[in-house]
Amino acid sequence: MAKHNFLVERYQITLGDHSKTFGGVDVRPRGVVACFGEFLRLIYYFLPEGADAPNSMWSEDARLCVVFLPFASMPPFVDMLRNEKPIYGNIDTDTPGDAFVSTLHEPVGEEEKKSGFLRR
Questions:
Q1: What are the DSSP calls for 9-30, one per residue?
Q2: Order of strands across the sheet that contains 31-36
Q3: What pTM was computed for the model?
């Protein structure tokens, strides 16, 4: 298959119970973070502690990667999407559970310097 790296152009955060079925497994995610690129989507479903998680999956037709993580892992994703840019989605279609979001290399405190928070 393939490895994809894409610019996250938009994102959507949803909180609350959402009943879904994936691969025959019923889940009730407490939160969802969806990252949208021009042609690719990466959606993280954050499940309650101890909940059964389906296998992560890739759909070539939908150009969509779905990953399941514990709800406690959600805050860093939200923080990154709100406070960093640019953000990139990274998907390996052979191992969709290894999908991740990232920034590029940037100097430490770059945004703080621009805002005047840190002075030289």
A1: -EEEEEES---EEETTEEE--S
A2: 10-15, 31-36, 41-47, 64-70, 57-59
A3: 0.86
Comparing C-alpha atoms, which of 63, 61, 68, 84 is closest to residue 23?
Answer: 68
What does the block give as tokens for 111?
């945004």
SS3 (DSSP) at 86: coil
Supply 30's token pair. Answer: 């407490």
Question: What 3-state DSSP class applies to 111?
Answer: helix
Cα 33–11–17 angle (5° rounding)?
Answer: 30
Distance between CA 15 and CA 8 in Å, rounded? 20
Q: Check pLDDT > 70 for residue 110.
A: no
**DSSP label at 78?**
H
Domain borders along the chain are 3-115
Sheet holding 88-92, edge to edge: 3-7, 88-92, 100-102
Amino acid at site 92: D
